[in-house]
């Protein structure tokens, strides 16, 4: 039976303050939880008996067999699935994110959890192992972001730091930024190493970060003289840019 105390603990993890204090995060869904169980340390899970029956071994401190209505009370999803699990947040050393030897993705103030989760998926797809974020970028371990990653957090390490300090400490690496007035990403020389900076959904890359960018890129519309009503969603733009960088591998 799922107690009120357990429900309260799960619900508290909606807030970054408590995720940071406890070092925990929540994931939901049959496929997502089954995938994360193989990679992250977890504390306990809540599941329907039929889901538990499909698992060979569950190495958790506590397994709670619950009913649909109980899971619904704890869930962050509109349509809860058969399992919800509480995992321990991994600790990653930012020193591993070395743009001299690999391609790094940098996010400057991305606010939407769905965008961040999608960007993490994109990074995983294109073999980008590290994302370096400004402190005001949304939390990678919020329930909405975790769901949007679809398990890509097992492939991608997300770091939070002062972007200008990180860029200055890697001043020899090429730094690419996306702007409306940059050179076409389709016609630019792109490196297999370096840093790709993507900006905030509404304001783009902030001036102090922009000052440290060495190559300005753009994604031109089609046809090139088309009058568009706005800019691309940051996650869509990230996918296009990462794809162009990886085309240089083949």
Written account of the structure:
By secondary structure, the protein is of the alpha/beta class. The protein folds into two domains: 4-88, Ribosomal protein L30/S12 (60s Ribosomal Protein L30, Chain: A); 94-247, 3-Layer(aba) Sandwich (Alpha/beta knot), CATH 3.40.1280. 32% of the residues lie in helices and 22% in strands. The protein has ten helices and ten strands. The strands form two sheets. The chain has a six-stranded parallel sheet with strand order 7-6-5-9-8-10, covered by helices on one side. Helix 6 packs parallel to helix 7 and helix 6 (113-125) packs parallel to helix 10 (234-247). The relative contact order is 0.14.
Give the strand line-up of the largest sheet.
7-6-5-9-8-10
CATH superfamily of the largest domain: SPOUT methyltransferase, trefoil knot domain
**For the record, what CATH class of the largest domain applies?**
Alpha Beta
Span of the ends, CA to CA: 54 Å
CATH fold category name of the largest domain: Alpha/beta knot
Could you estimate the helical fraction of the residues in percent?
25-40%
Q: Could you list the spans in which at least 5 consecutive residues all have pLDDT below 50?
A: none
Following the backbone from N to C, one meets helices and strands in this order, namely: HHEHEHEHEEHEHEHEEHEH
Mean pLDDT: 93
- Radius of gyration of CA atoms, rounded to a whole number: 20 Å
Shape: elongated
Supply the helix-strand structural class.
Answer: alpha/beta
């Amino acid at each position: 039976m799922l107690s009120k105390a357990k429900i309260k603990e799960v619900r508290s993890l909606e807030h970054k303050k408590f995720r940071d204090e406890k070092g925990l995060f929540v994931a939901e869904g049959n496929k997502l939880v089954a995938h994360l169980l193989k990679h992250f340390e977890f504390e306990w899970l809540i599941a329907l008996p039929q889901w538990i029956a499909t698992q060979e071994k569950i190495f958790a401190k506590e397994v709670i067999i619950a009913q649909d209505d109980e899971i619904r009370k704890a869930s962050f999803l509109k349509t809860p699935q058969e399992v919800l699990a509480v995992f321990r947040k991994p600790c990653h050393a930012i020193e591993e994110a070395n743009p001299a030897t690999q391609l790094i993705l940098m996010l400057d103030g991305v606010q939407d959890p769905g965008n961040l989760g999608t960007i993490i998926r994109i990074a995983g797809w294109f073999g980008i192992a590290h994302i370096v974020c400004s402190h005001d970028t949304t939390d990678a371990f919020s329930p909405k972001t975790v769901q949007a990653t679809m398990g890509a957090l097992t492939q991608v390490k997300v770091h939070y730091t002062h972007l200008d300090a990180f860029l200055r400490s890697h001043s020899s690496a090429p730094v690419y930024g996306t702007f409306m007035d940059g050179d076409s990403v389709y016609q630019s020389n792109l490196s297999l190493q370096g840093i790709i900076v993507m900006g905030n959904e509404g304001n783009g890359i902030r001036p102090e970060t922009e000052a440290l960018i060495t190559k300005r890129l753009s994604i031109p519309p089609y046809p090139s003289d088309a009058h568009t009503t706005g800019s691309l969603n940051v996650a869509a733009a990230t996918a296009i840019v990462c794809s162009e960088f990886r085309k240089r591998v083949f």
